[in-house]
Design a protein that fits this description.
With about 400 residues, the chain is an alpha/beta fold. About 35% of the residues lie in helices and about 20% in strands. The protein contains eleven helices and twelve strands. α3 runs antiparallel to α4 and α9 crosses α10.
Length: about 400
């Protein structure tokens, strides 16, 4: 059984300790959801496990042939390459084998009498057999078709953010690593693609570690939950629904234990204030226990919901309106003679396959793309806030509130 053992993993960022002396084991077949509040260090931990940003201290113990595949929130892909080229440029062992095989094949074809090249060719042919590398391209095409990416000759640079995420997912899934790490895998996926991914991961032979805010996805996929909270890692058995109940029970136990500890501290403090002296071995032992109790006294930290109260102007009846709006980008029609009235209090969701033009539509709503024809009317008291797929540059010399 392929196993990854993590011992005493610690990582700090500035003055903040993201996690300290964390220990856990990931066994073959484990399905683990890693959760925690934003900023708790989840992605940092994934980067440490994947070797992209090693921890400050601790050990990752695994067999020499242990492989890890990592899908980041924003995959790094060469914008100038096609989907096919970008996927085959992956760092996974199967892609390395294919590249070595093609390199030796070219040399051997030019020098078929060279015995050394023939031996290398035979060796790599056996490795291709062992890794089932002959079927990689057809497997990639199958995965991409399930993710609604059908043209492998498209250039990466023209893809939407969602399509790039799907290409990165295909690249990491085809590697079939011992540990598959996925950071927000359902972002930008359509409902049917999420359903396919759930079924794919349920039958995955290796181990899975996933970070996601999609609780329904966790309920379908995870059999364990790791919670990263205030530098500590808590393990729970079951899916997200089971985690909610087990965490409530854990917090209740800790609150009870903290209350008992505080009551004992008050009692012993009152005794110490009477002028207790170490006149006997028993009294000295009690003084020592008080000092230990005082040293270990702490306030229980519990993750809670963030309540954000922002100043807001009073909205008029009309927030935003499109009248007979038409927008075409290249040969791709986004909207045609489209009418929309957004009113205060409405909550509107936008769905569509990747590449359909959802982001372009939002850009038009935000006024960042000019309509080909028609009107865009914004309410007089309306101020727009726009959170994009690709995060804007944030000035590092400013405070959060100033940006």
């Amino acid at each position: 059984m392929q196993t990854l053992r993590v011992e005493n993993l610690t990582k700090t960022y500035g003055e903040k300790t993201l996690f300290e002396d964390v220990n856990f084991i990931i066994n073959e077949g484990d399905r683990i959801g890693l959760i925690g509040t934003n900023g708790s260090g989840k992605t940092t931990m994934l980067n440490a496990l994947a070797g992209l940003d090693p921890a400050d201290s601790g050990e990752l113990i695994a067999p020499n042939d242990y492989t890890i595949g990592y899908l980041m929130q924003q995959p790094v892909l060469d914008e100038d390459k096609t989907i096919r080229q970008a996927i085959f440029d992956g760092a996974g062992p199967v892609f390395q084998t294919i590249r070595r095989y093609e390199e030796v094949l070219a040399k051997y074809s030019a020098n078929p009498e060279d015995e050394k090249l023939q031996a290398q060719f035979d060796k790599l042919s056996r490795e291709m057999d062992q890794e089932d590398a002959w079927n990689v391209e057809s497997n990639i095409a199958t995965i991409l078709s399930q993710l609604h990416v059908n043209d492998m000759d498209q250039q990466i640079g023209i893809l939407s953010g969602g399509q790039k995420k799907r290409v990165g997912m295909a690249q990491v899934l085809i590697q079939a690593p011992d540990l598959l790490i996925l950071d927000e895998p359902t972002n930008h996926l359509d409902f049917d693609s999420i359903k396919w991914l759930e079924e794919y991961l349920q039958s995955y032979k290796g181990a899975l570690l996933v970070v996601t805010h999609d609780r329904y996805f966790l309920d379908q996929v995870a059999t364990q939950i790791f919670e990263l909270s205030f530098g500590k890692l808590y393990a729970y058995t079951g899916n997200y629904e089971d985690f909610v109940q087990q965490k409530a029970e854990r917090v209740e136990r800790e609150i009870t234990a903290e209350h008992k500890q505080n009551q004992l501290y008050k009692k012993e403090l009152a005794w110490m204030r009477t002028g207790a002296k170490a006149r006997s071995t028993k009294q000295q032992a009690r003084i020592n226990r008080f000092n230990d109790l005082k040293e270990n006294l702490h306030t229980l930290q519990v993750d809670g919901k963030v309540d954000i109260n922002l100043g807001q102007q009073r909205l008029g009846k009309k927030v935003l309106e499109f009248q007979d709006a038409t927008l075409t980008l290249g040969d791709h029609p986004i909207i045609k003679n489209f009418n929309l009235l957004v009113q205060g209090g409405q909550r509107i969701g936008i769905t569509g396959v990747n590449g359909a033009g959802k982001s372009s539509f939002l850009n038009a709503l935000a006024g960042e793309i000019k309509l080909d024809s028609g009107l865009r009317i914004q309410g007089e008291t309306v101020r727009l806030g726009y959170y994009r797929q690709q995060t804007e540059e944030i000035p590092e010399d400013k405070r959060v509130i100033a940006t």
